[in-house]
Write a structure and sequence with these properties.
- With 439 residues, this protein is α+β, with helices and mostly antiparallel strands.
- The chain folds into two domains: 158 residues, endopeptidase domain like (from Nostoc punctiforme) (endopeptidase fold (from Nostoc punctiforme), Alpha-Beta Complex), CATH 3.90.1720; 183 residues, Helix Hairpins.
- The protein has eight helices and eight strands.
- The strands form three sheets. The protein has a four-stranded antiparallel sheet with strand order 4-5-6-7.
């Protein structure tokens, strides 16, 4: 036995009990107590609920403005953070440049100091030699060097050579001392300039470091400010979302109250119609017994239609599925139905279920299209609907859905892709003003 067959038989097994309950609810016997009325909210309840909706909506609007302002402030702060970040990056680069300049100046100062020290040492040696020469000259007269050299000579040639040597030594000593003094002055000047450059480099390095520290601090302040603004924006967003949820709940509450009022009015109208219909039926049965058989025949046909539809409870929806023999494989729609695989699954769509439900009683198949089914029978005001009538829905004047009314404000339908045949309360949004009666 297939899964569909088991489901089909199980559905049929549930039909008698379900129909018994629905019949008792929809058609109370004359003299029996009517079902209790649904809640009937007062006008004050409706006004209070609507006032709450309006007040909440106003608060949501005010919060929306605050959120927009907070978001704008957050964007401005984010711009400031980017600016501070770039300035901090620039300060870091400047500090690196000044660090390199200071390192070069330090190296140059060290080299100049070494050169000055070397020149000073050489000058010290030259001074010592010069002092020794001067002291000897002073002790033995201005010609001591020459006399000593001449007295030690062995020949006129040697004497001449010693005289030339004395001239050269004296001149070299004097030139060496002068050169050393000049070198010392140059080295001292260079050392002074280098020290000045080093001091300037160190000052620039310190200034760059101070600027970097200040800009990094400004960057951190900007980040902290942005974080605080972001938290404020999020808090406002959360508050707005909570108010929107409250608004949604308040709107639903008002819709629920209006729905209760509508259901109460429908119950009251149904009660009045049922009482009038029961009285008329009793009077008609007493006056024309022959017509009672025809009414019972129609009632039996309606019950057969309802039974046939109820036996398909739980069968899946398939767009384009269903005919006079039962559920069939659906067809492609190029859209939603295809995403649910209706074209490869057995089931009913809304009009296909109606075709199957009425086929045995009518002896022919209704057209498999809601628009044609709407014109297939007698139209009665929606307020006068009774079990076995067809209910239709439209959008913009185009009929797009049909269901079978089974009484007690309940209907059976094949709703949409992804769902299954089920019983549900009548939906009055976008419902057509007329029901269609085939029996």
């Amino acid at each position: 036995m297939s899964v569909r067959t088991r489901r089909h038989l199980a559905g049929r097994a549930l039909v008698p009990a379900l129909l018994t309950v629905l019949t008792l609810v929809a058609q109370p016997a004359i003299g029996e107590a009517l079902p209790p009325p649904p809640p009937n909210p007062s006008d004050d309840d409706l006004k209070s609920g609507q006032a709450h909706v309006d007040a909440t909506a106003t608060r949501v609007g005010q919060l929306a403005n605050q959120v927009a302002q907070a978001d704008a402030a957050l964007l401005a702060l984010q711009d400031q953070v980017e600016i501070r970040h770039e300035q901090a990056n620039k300060a870091l680069i400047n500090q690196q440049v000044e660090d390199a300049a200071a390192a070069a100046a330090t190296l140059a100062a060290d080299n100049a100091r070494a050169e000055a020290d070397a020149a000073a040492a050489q000058i010290t040696v030259a001074h010592r030699n010069l002092d020794q020469f001067a002291a000897a000259s002073f002790r033995q007269g201005n010609m001591v060097g020459s006399v000593s050299a001449f007295l030690g000579s062995t020949s006129p040639k040697d004497l001449l050579a010693r005289a030339e040597l004395l001239d050269a030594v004296g001149g070299a000593q004097l030139h060496a001392v002068e050169d050393m003094r000049r070198a010392r002055v140059d080295a001292a000047n260079k050392d002074s300039q280098t020290r000045a450059a080093l001091a300037a480099a160190q000052a620039a390095k310190q200034a760059a470091a101070d600027a970097k520290t200040a800009l990094e601090g400004a960057y951190r302040v900007a980040i902290d400010t942005e974080a605080a603004q972001s938290a404020q924006s999020k808090a406002l967003q959360d508050h707005k979302a909570d108010l929107e949820r409250q608004l949604y709940e308040a709107q639903n509450a008002v819709v629920g109250l209006r729905g209760q009022r509508q259901r109460y009015e429908e119950w009251r109208a149904e009660r009045d119609r049922e009482a009038a219909a029961a009285a008329a039926a009793a009077a008609a049965e007493r006056s024309t017994p022959a017509t009672a058989g025809g009414s019972r025949l129609i009632a039996g046909g309606v019950q057969s239609v309802i039974n046939r539809a109820m036996a398909e409870l739980g069968v899946r929806y398939s767009w384009g599925g269903g005919n006079a023999q039962g559920p069939t494989i659906g067809v492609r729609d190029g859209g939603v139905a295809d995403t649910y695989g209706d074209y490869r699954r057995v089931g009913f769509d809304c009009s296909g279920l109606i075709v199957y439900a009425f086929s045995r009683v009518l002896g022919y198949s209704l057209p498999h299209y809601t628009g044609y089914q709407y014109n297939a029978g007698r139209k009665v005001p929606l307020a006068d609907k009774r079990p076995g009538d067809l209910l239709f829905w439209s959008t913009g004047g185009d009929i797009h859905h049909v269901a079978l009314y089974i009484g007690g404000e309940q209907m059976i339908e094949a709703p949409y892709s992804g769902a299954a045949v089920h019983v549900t309360p009548v939906r009055y949004a976008e419902i057509m003003p007329y029901a269609v009666r085939l029996l």
